[in-house]
Structure formats: C-alpha cells, structure tokens
From TrEMBL:
Organism expressing this protein natively: Methanolobus vulcani
Function of the protein: DNA-dependent RNA polymerase (RNAP) catalyzes the transcription of DNA into RNA using the four ribonucleoside triphosphates as substrates.
Gene3D superfamilies xref list: Homeodomain-like
Binding positions for Zn(2+) per the UniProt entry: 6, 9, 43-44
Encoding gene, per UniProt annotation: rpo10
Protein name: DNA-directed RNA polymerase subunit Rpo10
Family annotation (NCBIfam families): PRK04016.1
C-alpha cells in the first residue's frame, strides 16, 4: 500500500501508482513516467521509487 500523500510536501501520490507501475512494467523509463505524471519534486518521487508493494505478500498472515 503506497501512502496516499507525500510525507514531506503533502502532494497526493497514490493516484499515480497504478499507472506508474503499469508503464514501467511495459518498459518505459521510470524518470520519464514520473515527469509525465506530474511527480516532479524529489520528495514525491522517492515516495514512489522507494515503494515496495507488500500488501499481497502480507495478506495471508493477517
Ligand atoms: Zn512531495
């Protein structure tokens, strides 16, 4: 689960996660996708770049 907002500036970032994930999986450059989605501040970019999706991994143990 990606946090809804950037911890540093409060910009909503959760709405770009699905498109980012899909486009990177299709081979697009991550930096270009983030630029295109309007995630330009590095505080917001690290929210997405450093995110590891654990929800499916942890779900069986809940
Ligand atoms: Zn930010």
């Amino acid at each position: 689960m990606l946090p809804v907002r950037c911890f540093s500036c409060g910009k909503v970032v959760s709405n770009v996660w699905e498109e980012y994930k899909q486009r990177v999986a299709e081979g697009e450059d991550a930096a270009a996708v983030l630029d295109d989605l309007g995630v330009v501040r590095y505080c917001c970019r690290r929210m997405i770049l450093s995110h590891v999706e654990l929800v499916d991994t942890l779900a069986p143990y809940q």
